[in-house]
Amino acid sequence: MDFAVLSDIHGNYIALEKCVEYALSRGVKAFAFLGDYVGELAYPEKTMKMIFEMAEKYNCYFIRGNKEDYWIDYYNNGELGWKDKDSTTGSLLYSMIVCGHTHIQTKFEINGKTVLNAGSVGVPLFSNRKSQFLILHQTGKQWKEEFISIEYDVEKVIEELHTSGLNKYAPYWCIVTENLLRNGNISPGTVLKRAMALCKAETGTCIWPDIPEQYWRQAVEEILVNKQIKV
C-alpha cells in the first residue's frame, strides 16, 4: 500500500485538488492528513467539502494541527491560553516519523529515526510556486519516501482573496500571503513576529491576535518592501 501524506492545506482547495488528482493517478488509495486544513485563504468550506468527500471514498487518516487547536480552543474557552501540551512520546516508538507545520519539505535522520516533513499543500516555503506533499511507498515492512512538488493555478488562489473580500478584512495579512504564494521565501510568522515587536515597543504590550493594522503595515513595508530585516 502507498500513502499520500498531505499537510498544511490552509484552505487552498485548488492546490489540494491537484495533489489528490496526482496521487490518484499514481495509484494511491490511502491518505494521511496532518492538520491545518483551513486558514489564510478564501472559501474554507470548499476545502472542508473536499476533505469530507475524500473520507467517504478512500482510506483516510486525520490528525489536527495548531490551526484546529486554535478553533477548538476558542470555541470552548475563548482566549484563555493553553491548558494541555501535545504528547510527543508516542512517536519515539517508531523508526519513521512524518510531520508538517514548518511548510518546508525535509528529511533528516537522528538516533536511528527518520523524520519526514511533507511540506505544505497550500502555502509552502521555498517551493517555486508549487504545491507539495509526500508519497510513502511500502515494500514489505519498509517505507520509501517520495517528495512531490506540482504546479497549480497560483493566480486563481490570489484572485479569490480579492473576489471573496477577504483582503478588505485583513489587507496586510493577505499581502503577506500573496507574497508567499508567488515567491515562497518569507513566512507569515516572520512578519507577525516583527508586527508584534513594533506594537510592544510602542505600546508596552502586544497580545496576539489583537495587533493594530498600523504595525502590520509597518512590518510589511520593512520586510517585503524595503527588506530592512534579514529573513
From TrEMBL:
One of its GO terms (molecular function) is phosphatase activity. Residues 1-117 form the Calcineurin-like phosphoesterase domain. Signal peptide: none annotated. InterPro entries: Ap4A_hydrolase, Calcineurin-like_PHP, Metallo-depent_PP-like. GO terms for cellular component: cytoplasm. This is Putative phosphodiesterase.
